[in-house]
Amino acid sequence: EIVMTQSPATLSVSPGERATLFCRASQSVSSNVAWYQQKPGQAPSLLIYGASTRASGLPVRFSGSGSGTEFTLTISSLQPEDFAVYYCQQGETFGQGTKLEVK
Amino acid sequence: QVHLEESGPEVVKPSQTLSLICNVSGASLSSGDYYWSWIRQRPGRGLEWIGFVYYTGNTYYNPSLESRVSISIDASKSQFSLRLNSMTAADTAIYYCARDIDSGDNTYFDTWGRGSLVTVSS
User: Fold this and answer.
1) Rounded to whole angstroms, how far apart are CA atoms B99 and B113?
2) Quick one: three-class SS letters along A8-42?
3) Distance of CA B18 to CAs B12, B15, B77, B83, Å?
């Protein structure tokens, strides 16, 4: 079973700044990683798939990168609506999430 | 626009069976392009995939839940269903249905229902 480990658990960043979230796979998964955003009281929403392909309508400030075992989600200039919990996913396995909070 | 919506009981008694339905609009469940999944989120915790069903009726389940779970599909009604038996307090969660895209190279959930909160309580 592949384990997805996200870091940090909580990330405090000021609006307008860059946020970088990390996800590590316990073994190589090529580029088969997706990222989701979940706001309180809402279902998760797809952001990125194939490690770097943006979902339809996603603002360009969101970008994904990586392959093999190391993956990154970057938000270039944080907007107020970006503060949420972010999950990476590979196959049937999700990471434990990173909470992005206002500094 | 694809829309998924869960329906079912809000409260289930311990040892009973949970039955949830996901109604799908804007997409055909007879298409082989997608799988149809159930995912849950226990209070204060992350996301746990439960299993999926294909349009053929083939299923695949999370090994940790496999002995208690059953997922079925009825394309004529545009719905798929989850049954989870022997419910305990540990099964209290928000249950989501989701469309699962598996292209071989990539697997991801592109559309989610709003979720159905199920509490196990006597």
Assistant:
1) 9
2) CCEEEECCCCCEEEEEEECCCCCCCCEEEEECCCC
3) 7, 10, 20, 5
Most B CBs within 10 Å, among A39, A46, A85, to test the B interface: A46
Interchain contact B107–A (C-beta under 8 A): yes
Which residue has 């292209």 as its token pair? B103
Is the per-residue pLDDT at B104 higher than 80?
Answer: no
Integer Cα distance of A62 and B52 in angstroms: 29
Q: Does B105 score more than 80 pLDDT?
A: no
Q: What is the pLDDT of residues A28-60, one digit of tens each?
A: 999 999 999 999 999 999 999 999 999 999 999
Buried b (16+ CB within 10 A) or exposed e, A47-70: bbbbbbebbeebeeebebebeebe
